[in-house]
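Inputs:
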Amino acid sequence: MIGRILALGLAAVLAASPAMAQDKVKVGFIATFSGPGGVLGKHLHDGFMLGIDHSGGKLGGLTPEVIQEDDRLAPDVGLQVAKKLIERDKVDVMAGVIFSNVMMAIYKPVIDAGVPFISSNAGPSPIAGAQCSPMFFSTSWQNDGAHEAMGKHAQDKGYKNVYLMAPNYQAGKDALAGFKRFYKGNIADEVYTTVNQLDYSAEITQLRAAKPDAVYVFYPGGMGINFVKQYGQAGLTSQTPLLSAFTIDSTTLPAQGDAAIGTFTTAFWAVDLKNPVNEKFVADYQKKYNDIPSTYSAQAYDTALMLNAAIKDAGGKVSDKKALADALKKTSFDSVRGGKLKLNNNNIPIQNFYLLETVKRADGKLVSSVRSTVLTDHKDAYSKDCAMK
Amino acid sequence: MDPLLLLVQALNGLQLGVMLFLLAAGLTLVFGIMNLVNLAHGSLYMVGAYFMAAFQAWTGSFVLALLLAVPATLLVGVAVELIVLRRLYDRDHLDQVLGTFGLILFFNELVRVIWGPAALFVSMPQALSGTVVLLPGAPYPVYRLVIIGVGLAVAAFLSWLVTRTRTGMLIRAGASNPTMVAALGVDIRLLFTLVFGLGAALAGLAGAMAAPLLSVEAAMGDGVLILTFVVIVIGGIGSIRGAFVAAVLVGIVDTVGRAFLPILLREIFNRQVANAAGPALASMLIYVLMAAILVFRPRGLFGAKG
């Protein structure tokens, strides 16, 4: 009995001592884990955890405590869990976030609370531009990057008449605007469909009648699965090249099936991108999760590597948030992209974008495979509006 | 406007219509006869699609999977009726809405727990995966023609069942006056279970048939449920004929509207305005249709009660 009281007392003393707190780093990880978007959250989280594994199970020598919260793809829920992570859990750093609308809701509260924040996915334009902050970092991209790359590809390829389609909401409009920033040819038509539309037979019939050189679409998630399947079933894939961004990746390919073979997409990363970090990442990811990694997993893997390097640089002192943010800005680590990750003045990566084609791998799995480099050391168009140097 | 294109779009609309009919037929009977607002009808559609994916992965055959998925959904429907819905018949509509909304959340989470968060894949049989040239210059996917065929066959079967059989007579009587039917000594509980099972099987058939066209994922039934309610309100609650006419009407208006409204708007406004307003107006079209029909026929086109 006396022994137990002593042990309890000792535990209480230990818990209260500041040295104990410095052995740990608390990471608030927000993503969409439920609903149809839940698979993206899973890939993001899996990638992040593998990044920690590859850093020896630690982040900069500290034991990580990753507190995972679900935003349920609702900005208000995102805000609620972000406040909880900051005020109740007192996290040292925030990471994750798939969707831009959630990001816009939580961005200011997190930054104002002085918590370093690394986006593993969302990159809305205001944050890349006028609202940029020294506390915010990205291991992904600004939203327009992939669209701009596909616009560049369509231009380089000499397509004269491209048909554009996207869901009727802000991200859809931004996507087509990004494409048109680099594509200067004729637009056969620009079609906006209802968000979460299931059937595209009407639109596909119109599209076929317009006889474009190529079709460019932005249909994330389930919409992309529906559209790509129905486009393939209409027998169009071989006739009119299907170009896309954020529509075909390893989270959607198992459900899209063979209809996706021969379609093109643009991204900063691919499963078969040749560099040692990526080869290790892809091999171990497949081993650990029995799943092919996606761009989401790759970005979040880099988030973990970046945190690991920065905390090490800061000497493990995560309680000094300002110093941690400075370390994040200056740190250097080998990214899945190949080489060191380069950040622009707005703390968003400067990176290449590749053209990928969907193919069936030798093991029968569908993957998007690198064909060519479309944009080299690309900087987003909004960085000039960011006052930071 | 190209008349050939209009014809193909009408065919697309018909295909969407018969799909909606499969869902609406069950929902309208359940609403009409059992006086139950069943928001979970879309979940049965989703369950049908998931069963299709699971059985196809297991048997490797489309036809076998379809033959298994429909009775499996029927069983799920009967289980839901026996375990949950029986307790809701005597409650008011708000309780039913709450209870069946709970079922939506339950089923959406259940499929995620069982099959994971990623969307599933269902392939269509090789023989049906091509396109046929129905009209010159307008190839049409064979599978969509098959859906139209199956939908029309089910409509014919239901019409026979409802108008020519004793069960159908009870169903019709139940839709008009369930209290009187019970008073005449008919086992109304059994009739309810039967009707609900039939509705579930039809929803399962719709889900299973749609699975090769769509992403099989949690909450896939939520969007289609709203369209289905529009259909049964237009058609008149409790009427199979009304459900069929309204489903085809909604399918065609929605499809043709989506295809041609933005083009028509472009004749009047500039491209920018038309692109912004077109899709919004097109998605409103069926609700405008519903409102217009309700002004002239408050009980819908073929309302059974009144």
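The longest strand of chain B covers residues 131-135. Flag for discussion at group meeting.
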